[in-house]
Design goal:
mainly alpha; 21 helices; membrane; transmembrane; cytosine transmembrane transporter activity; Hydantoin permease; globular; 478 residues; Purine-cytosine permease; CodB
Length: 478
């Protein structure tokens, strides 16, 4: 789902050591599409996939909604990467953070980093929970349920703390350790998803396309505490599962190394290996579990059966399943904590990378103690994209419309501003308005992500034009 490879890792692998944090990537470092294909294929088959697939079933999706909805939603995500992110990346060849700094000002970018870092910690905490469900199997640990918010047992607390401590220490050792771990484990995880899907099909007695389609049929009522997902829920949610990366422009930092914008098509490898094959394979695991006496007992009592990834994978492929879930959660949480540490360092520059990463790991471990972050991952991912994606609209609208509307590009840099109010109020108004609509009228949050993104871009242009005209000449001190 969300990227499990840090910006620094990608840059080091693609650029061969040159980071170019505050300058355009030179032509000698540009890379062809092949440099991006394997990266995207591996990084989107991660610990999150073990949770997301089953959660679709708890929302009562039908076969058509799941299979065709994911097909379309992931394609829309690929189009966003290709025609927005990659297009702008090869035009300017700057990192997200430097490009935002030129538009927003350094102070405002720091607030963005804090928000990014906190959200990264929550995601990492969910992945620590994922790994804990596998480690806890031989310990006979009580698994968290869909409705659980607090720790389920003392064993669960100990397991989460130990996993969090190990992950934090490895992440704090720096980029090289994180990169080696992710590169080594990614192929194993992809193979595990494929194996789980094949075994689950056999356990379900599927011998034809019709029997495969019948697994979900016309769908069902959502489990207790879940909302009903229709075709459009699946399409829109899967489109914006990585909203922060494509329409939110985070992957500018990746595609600035691409020789041409057509490299954006390589994201299809991630969407259809991870966000299609892996999600469906994980959903098949849950379909097998739902036929067990244990799951039926939950349903009989009006309770939602657990979606704990560890037991699901163990029931399908045994010890290899436990290993795969541990690795999947670990390879997502590890670089995510590292990336959160880097974000925190922007506001804590006196602290070393080691200690800010330890701080991020501590926050993530505390979050992992609360299984709600993992059990409500669909909701969290929707919120994550909703918060961060509108910031990307500022970059997109400046690129396509600034000159047409008379808006000065990179205004903060030209005026020496640390805080561009046009950017802040564009984001705050769009976020506040559409979050209120979602909350007040019970609208699925992913449904308002695109309207919020569009409004933020339009407001940025209008407010920028107004304030720039008021400020007058660019030579006036900011």
């Amino acid at each position: 789902m969300l990227q499990q490879v840090t910006e620094e890792e990608i840059i080091q692998e693609i650029a061969g050591g040159g980071e170019y944090e505050r300058e355009p990537v030179p032509a000698g470092r540009w890379k062809g599409w092949g440099s991006f294909l394997g990266m995207y294929a591996g990084e989107h088959a991660a610990g999150t996939e073990f949770v997301i697939g089953p959660l679709f079933l708890t929302a009562g999706v039908s076969a058509f909604d799941l299979i065709i909805g994911l097909l379309l939603g992931n394609f829309l995500a690929v189009l966003s990467w290709r025609f927005l992110t990659a297009e702008i990346a090869v035009k300017y060849r700057l990192t997200l953070y430097y490009q935002l700094e030129k538009i927003c000002g350094r102070k405002l970018v720091r607030y963005y980093n804090v928000a990014n870092g906190i959200l990264f910690c929550f995601l990492a905490g969910a992945m620590i929970t994922v790994s804990a469900t596998a480690v806890g199997i031989p310990l006979n640990m009580e698994m968290p349920q869909l409705t659980d918010t607090l720790p389920t047992s003392g064993t669960y607390i100990v397991v989460v703390i130990l996993i969090g401590a190990v992950i934090s220490l490895v992440a704090a050792r720096g980029y090289d350790t994180v990169a080696r771990a992710a590169n080594f484990m990614s192929p194993v995880i992809v193979l595990a998803f494929l194996a789980c899907g094949v075994v689950a099909l056999r356990q379900l007695g599927v011998g034809s396309l019709g029997e495969f389609w019948a697994i979900w049929g016309e769908g069902s009522e959502p489990f207790p505490g879940q909302i009903k997902y229709t075709f459009w829920h699946v399409v829109i949610w899967s489109w914006f599962a990585n909203a922060a990366m494509h329409i939110g422009m985070s992957d500018l930092s990746v595609f600035r190394f691409a020789r041409r914008a057509t490299a954006g098509w390589t994201t299809a490898a991630g969407m259809y290996v991870g966000h299609y094959m892996a999600w469906i394979a994980a959903a098949l695991l849950y379909a097998v579990y739902l036929r067990t006496p244990e799951a039926q007992a939950f349903l009989t009592e009006g309770l939602a059966p657990t979606v704990a990834p560890g037991p699901l994978a163990f029931n399908a492929i045994g010890v290899f399943g436990i290993i795969a879930v541990v690795l999947a959660g670990w390879t997502t949480a590890n670089p995510t904590i590292y990336r959160a540490g880097l974000a925190f360092q922007a506001v804590l520059p006196r602290f070393s990378t080691f200690w800010v990463t330890i701080l991020a790991g501590t926050v993530a471990t505390v979050a992992g103690l609360f299984p709600a972050f993992a059990m409500k991952l669909l909701d969290f991912v929707a919120l994550y994209g909703f918060i961060l994606a509108p910031v990307g609209a500022v970059i997109v609208f400046q690129h396509f419309f600034a000159r047409r509307t008379g808006v000065v590009e990179d205004y903060a840099e030209r005026r020496g501003l640390g805080f561009n109010p046009a950017v802040f109020w564009a984001w705050a108004i769009s976020f506040g308005l559409f979050y209120f609509i979602s909350w007040q009228f019970d609208v699925f949050l992913s449904f308002v992500t695109l309207p919020a993104w569009l409004l933020c871009g339009v407001l940025f242009l209008l407010l920028s034009r107004k304030w720039q005209q008021t400020a007058g000449s660019l030579n006036t001190p900011g």
